Amino acid sequence: MKNRLLATLLALSAAGHSVAAAETKPAEKADAVKRHPLRGVVTSVDAERSTLMVKHEEIPGVMRAMTMAFKVDAKALAAVKKGDAITGLMSRQGKDWVLENVQPAAAKP
Question: What CATH number should be reported for the domain whose range is 36-104?
Answer without folding.
Answer: 2.40.50.320
